[in-house]
Amino acid sequence: MRLIGLTLALAACACGTGKTVYAGPLDTRAVSCTVNGGGTTNKGNRYSAYVAANNNYTVSPMRASQPMPSPASVGTVLFSTNEITLRTFEGESQGTVAPLYNCPSGTMEYFRGVGTYDSASRSYPTGLQGIGYRVYYYLGNGEELAAPQQFPNTFATGALVFPFSSSERGVYRTRIDFVATGAPIKPGVISAGNVYGYSSVDANVNVPSLYRVGLASSITVNAPTCEVKNPGNLTMTLPDATVTDMNSGAAENRFYTTELQVGCGMSSQTSPTVRLSTIYPVGGNFPGVVKNQTAGGAQGVGVKLWLFNPQSGNYDVAQFDNTLTNRGTLLSSSPTSLWSYKVGAAYLRTGGTVTAGEVKATATLTFTYS
What is the CATH number of the domain that holds 300? Predict the structure, then answer.
């Protein structure tokens, strides 16, 4: 509600069914306001009682499931709700959006969001990293008033009126913008219950609720999917090794590599995480080794796997079922990031004498946008 002087002709009225309420000190005075219960002014003009539902607005997401936005500068609008027009009230019905009157000069109305306001991004927290929200008291007539706002009552006895639309005042609208806070954006859910703007006054007024603009339903921000761009390299064919070389250990010194190029649906500053897993680990004293899965194949031999570490410049023995970060090397960043991952493999004796036969080992690489 914005403080309007005599728009409703309520300011001078001490009649009607209003209830006087009191609060703590304001500029060394006690604040008293009268709740609008409807009635007739001293000029004979009727006005309706305040109806809280007329000042409760919800704005709907443009999409219930939102692709994760690309990184953006602080304060940039990433996506928005639909924009709605505030309801129109004329004549007697204007009272339904005027909750209080007889408020002393200096009474303050505040319009805020939920949580701590971030002045850099001009937003309140959504609960999802990297995304804040900006809720508008109103938009219209060349003004865009986003929370936080405060309005002093400059009249001796003014009526507190919400920013309704009327033929006299023009058309006003509202919406909620979701903006970049500067932190890395993470996927997740923006809960509707955490995103709204609301009015309050510095008087202890017992009214059901004041002006409110809230998110109608929650928004899921989805992480982009990633895929291997050269899937042919997912299959490594190791050269044959003789039984003699296997049993002597000579074949274990032959190291083979493949490169996988991984692209995701949008650019990022860090490489996707990688997780190497298998349902056929040798286990025990053989970390990173996969069993031979060929029925009737070679005995006493498996395949050991490594994953390249760009930070050390070395290949690290595979750690099954561990999610690892920073294992990709950036190949390109426009329009989306493309990352290189290198996998190493070698034959390894797993116990007993190695016998001749086919060797097949299977493992799964999972890449996740981060």
Answer: 2.60.40.1090
What's at 126, amino acid-wise? T
Whole-model pTM: value is 0.69
Q: Are residues 188 and 270 in the same domain?
A: no
- Dihedral Cα 158, 163, 165, 171, nearest 10 deg: 130
Domain that holds residue 95: 2-222
| Half-sphere exposure in the Cβ direction for 41 (13 Å, CA) | 18
Report the C-alpha gap between 65 and 97 in whole angstroms.
34
Which two structure tokens, joined as six digits, stand for 100?
């209080």
Is residue 21 packed enough to be buried (19+ CB in 10 Å), middle (13-18) or exposed (0-12)?
middle
φ, ψ at 279 (rounded to 5°): -95, 10
Cα 124 from Cα 132, distance rounded (Å): 5
Given the structure tokens 């056929």, which residue do they identify? 280
3 state DSSP class of 54: helix
| pLDDT single digits (tens) 91-132 | 899 889 888 887 777 778 899 999 999 999 999 999 999 999
Nearest to 327 by CA among 301, 344, 309, 343: 309
